[in-house]
Amino acid sequence: MTDALLRIAAALERLAPPPAPTPDPAGADAFAWHTEPDRLVPVAEVARVDLSLLLGIDRSRDTLLANTLHFAQGFPANNALLWGARGMGKSSLVKAIHAEVNRRGHPLKIVELSREDLPSVGRLLSVLRAAPAHRFVLFCDDLSFSHDDQHYKSLKAVLDGGIEGRPANVILYATSNRRHLMPRDMIENERSTAINPAEAVEEKVSLSDRFGLWLGFHPCTQDEYLAMIRGYCDAHGIAIDDQTLRAEAIEWQATRGSRSGRVAWQYFTDLAGRRGVKL
Question: Domain 25-217 has what CATH class?
């Protein structure tokens, strides 16, 4: 009988293994949150560019940097929503500022939370709350919601709700192409079909209202686009004359049908490959 019980216990442990131990926050500056089981996975090397190479977004850069420095130093700071044109450096800015704040001697961790894992955000906050000696930027990239998506309700507790509130050592930075995180036609449909239109719209847009900072990103000018590429060339030691760079970059932009920081980097990647330069 004892042997049978031991075999049953071993089988149950294999079916439901214990959760992986939470890594020491001192062991890394960046983590990714995963579920099933819940765990923080250290990120050895964050994919980012230097803050000095992000051009055309000076006001947003300075505002977010100041807010992050306040938070890292233990002073009050706002959650931030970076919204606007695609490819204009919203995600890159968050990661670059995290690196810059650490470079200035203010220890700061960043934890990436995917939109699909938003229902687990309460459990993540409990993990971060248990490490009060560290300060965390909770980063949710490309945040948006469809008409039947209820994940946004999970995020409200992080921003401005719940009996516990947001831990004092956690701040949320999110990026989105939409200012209100939801498509305009969805908001308009709520207004036209609801018994009380104002209440229906308030429910949908109240999430974005909970961000203390709204930082808008807008399409860049052609001069800014060319300046971005020139900055990349100078930083990586690629010599190219202005006339050639301008002609090739504008042609590249025309084939893409858009002009942004992402397109500038894609042209530069092609240029570096043709010149045999490793990035």
Answer: alpha beta
